[in-house]
């Protein structure tokens, strides 16, 4: 979920509540707050906590609220984990420590420390293209033994490795790469953590609903329908936060900059096309 800001750049909790309620009403089973799409690198700890509290209150106890708490600093991550638990989160999204590129034994120790820091379950976030460090499949196999390490947000682009871990553990795999939502689900994934669903939640969910109903042909058709918008939002050279806010409105925080007119027009055309009834 994006983090809305006012025109003056302050956290807009009213807009966050409205957006969260809309996403739930349009089919989202849960919400991930304070992730990269939520501009977590530029929000303060106090803002992160306020956002979790506001959304928790808005959507009620029946909707899963997962809070991003990952940083490059283990001590800071532990503090954010405890803060998120106090604010009412149901689970934690924890990215691999970035930039310092820790070896696998240090990655494993980091995640175990976070898992022991609160009573909340963890979704590990494997996105080596951004962090510089993979959570290797063998490391995931070891981490799966911890009772509070229960899920993976998978941006590894390694379907073989993901399939191997899913086959040998009970870890719930969620696609974090939109173009792999359906392929990973077909291999046994649990769902997705989606940036595109900020603007098209029903269309994104419909793909997996069709697959669950046994309509694999329909799932492929619906997946093809969302690909043009997905490509523009996630593979056009602009961050997902920027493309979402180009469609929904609202400012981004620096160093991000808003989408230019040409990019915004292209996004709007693709969004409008997806909104048209199938012919």
TrEMBL record:
Protein localization: Cytoplasm
Its EC number(s): 4.3.3.7
Annotated catalysed reactions: L-aspartate 4-semialdehyde + pyruvate = (2S,4S)-4-hydroxy-2,3,4,5-tetrahydrodipicolinate + H2O + H(+)
Catalytic EC class: lyase
Binding site for pyruvate: 37, 193
A GO MF term: 4-hydroxy-tetrahydrodipicolinate synthase activity
Keyword field contains Amino-acid biosynthesis: yes
Catalytic machinery residues: 125, 153
Keyword Transferase: no
Family annotation (Gene3D superfamilies): Aldolase class I (3.20.20.70)
Pathway: Amino-acid biosynthesis; L-lysine biosynthesis via DAP pathway; (S)-tetrahydrodipicolinate from L-aspartate: step 3/4
Any Gene Ontology CC annotation: cytosol
Residues the record marks as site: Part of a proton relay during catalysis: 36, 99
Organism superkingdom: Bacteria
Similarity comment: family membership: Belongs to the DapA family.
Functional description taken from the UniProt entry: Catalyzes the condensation of (S)-aspartate-beta-semialdehyde [(S)-ASA] and pyruvate to 4-hydroxy-tetrahydrodipicolinate (HTPA).
Subunit structure, interactors included: Homotetramer; dimer of dimers.
Entries under NCBIfam families matching the protein: dapA (TIGR00674)
Name recorded for this polypeptide: 4-hydroxy-tetrahydrodipicolinate synthase
Gene source species: Streptomyces purpureus
């Amino acid at each position: 979920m994006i983090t809305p800001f006012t025109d003056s750049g302050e956290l807009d909790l009213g807009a966050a509540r409205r957006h969260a309620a809309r996403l739930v009403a349009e089919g989202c089973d849960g919400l991930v707050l304070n992730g990269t799409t939520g501009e977590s690198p530029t929000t303060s700890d106090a803002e992160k906590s306020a956002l979790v509290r506001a959304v928790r209150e808005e959507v009620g106890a029946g909707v899963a609220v997962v809070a991003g708490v990952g940083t490059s600093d283990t001590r800071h991550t532990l503090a954010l984990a405890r803060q998120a638990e106090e604010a009412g989160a149901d689970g934690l999204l924890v990215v691999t420590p970035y930039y310092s590129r820790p070896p696998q034994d240090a990655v494993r120790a980091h995640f175990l420390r976070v898992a022991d820091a609160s009573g909340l379950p963890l979704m590990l976030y494997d996105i080596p293209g951004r962090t510089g460090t993979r959570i290797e499949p063998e490391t995931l196999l070891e981490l799966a033994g911890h009772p509070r390490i229960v899920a993976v947000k998978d941006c590894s682009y390694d379907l073989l490795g993901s399939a191997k871990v899913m086959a040998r553990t009970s870890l719930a795999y969620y696609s974090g790469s939109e173009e792999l939502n359906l392929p990973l689900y077909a291999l046994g994934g649990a769902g997705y953590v989606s940036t595109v669903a900020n603007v098209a939640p029903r269309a994104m969910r419909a793909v997996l609903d069709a697959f669950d109903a046994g309509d694999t042909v329909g799932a492929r058709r619906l997946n093809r329908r969302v690909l043009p918008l997905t490509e523009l939002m996630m593979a056009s050279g602009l961050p997902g936060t920027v493309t979402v806010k180009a469609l929904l409105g609202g400012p981004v925080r620096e160093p991000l900059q808003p989408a230019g007119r040409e990019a915004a027009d292209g996004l709007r055309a693709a969004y409008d096309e997806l909104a048209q009834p199938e012919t």
